[in-house]
Amino acid sequence: MPNAAMPFSGNKEPSSPSDAVSPLSLPLNTKPGATVAATSAATTLSEAPTEKTRSSSVEALEVPEATSTSSGLNLASDEPDQLMDLSGPSWTWPNNDRELGALVKSLGAKLVPQPAKGAAVLQSKANGVQNMGQGQGPAGPGAYRIEGGAGSLCKRLIEAHKLDVRLLSRVETIEIEADANVVRVSTRGGPVFCASAVVLAVPPRSIAADIGFFPALGDERRKVFQNTQTWMADAGKFCLLFEDKFWQKAGLSGTVFANGLPAPQVWDNSDGAQAALAGFVFGSANLRHLDSESAFAASPLLTQLEQVFGPRVRSYQGLELCAWDRHFPADESASGGNHDYGSSLLQAPHAQRIFFGSTETTPDEHGHMEGAVQAGIRTSQQVLALLRGTPRK
């Protein structure tokens, strides 16, 4: 199970507590929105003033990331000519997502409208394929995607602010040395980072399952964390590349809503000149269809797509698969869990120096990139309030 933490100043272990500078550490996590939250928090902190009267004490930022990618599950293909967005929170609604919109604009990124030209279809075993009419997109009216994929936003943030992201650095324990005002972040088989504060952009349930805390989280907080369901932890995504949008020539938008079939939602995932179809699957049985290309080819997914788009759908030129249950505790895919996101215990710091900033901590926009950015802004403000009262070493 990947996890991540962001220490501020992120120095490696000092020879003594007095050697530690005031650092900040931001652990990331491979889940939708987590990297956006962490890098958003880091961005705000990296821009904070440092003069004595308004000191943030942020001298450096370290971002340990448990996986091999800096964009978490805001994924996109690494191939420059294959702009396949594999992220969960692909869509944004500019009229609603104010903080994300401001971030996109500040980074010079572009939004592209979700293709909706043509007919959407309703698919079921009982009734086959039914035309739903024109102009119905997969995410409602006014939906856009980030050009180059949602993962490109994380990469822009990292490059713009020269964030030090340590890949394959799984955070195992976080310990507060109360007398020295130092937080020690230990990674598996790696360095120990020392920080003045830590932001965990990790789903609450993963925090409770994967990271040891000293002092302990406490029974009430741990129970809330364990019962807060990770957004779309039991979901996965596939994306197929084609030479052209052949479905549009047949009068279809690419949008499919399905009942009782492996992929309940399919859409036109094209970006720029690249034609693509993508879809979600849910549940452990269906997610195993995404374990490999051979598993996908032998699954009922292609048969389902062929019923809508015809045999041409089997002639894809590229395929990307991502099953998110591979990244979360074994019980994540179980139904149940608390849907009361944004609990005060998800937003309040632990022991004054450990802050929680995944998208699940936001009350209204949880699960979306807007919620991740909001969480990043909130935690950065909390950290700055703490550090302004912390004497510089």
Automatic annotation (TrEMBL):
<feature type="compositionally biased region" description="Low complexity">
    <location>
        <begin position="34"/>
        <end position="48"/>
    </location>
</feature>
<dbReference type="InterPro" id="IPR002937">
    <property type="entry name" value="Amino_oxidase"/>
</dbReference>
<feature type="region of interest" description="Disordered">
    <location>
        <begin position="1"/>
        <end position="90"/>
    </location>
</feature>
<dbReference type="Pfam" id="PF01593">
    <property type="entry name" value="Amino_oxidase"/>
</dbReference>
<dbReference type="GO" id="GO:0097621">
    <property type="term" value="F:monoamine oxidase activity"/>
</dbReference>
<dbReference type="InterPro" id="IPR050703">
    <property type="entry name" value="Flavin_MAO"/>
</dbReference>
<dbReference type="InterPro" id="IPR036188">
    <property type="entry name" value="FAD/NAD-bd_sf"/>
</dbReference>
<feature type="domain" description="Amine oxidase">
    <location>
        <begin position="142"/>
        <end position="384"/>
    </location>
</feature>
<protein>
    <recommendedName>
        <fullName>monoamine oxidase</fullName>
        <ecNumber>1.4.3.4</ecNumber>
    </recommendedName>
</protein>
<comment type="similarity">
    <text>Belongs to the flavin monoamine oxidase family.</text>
</comment>
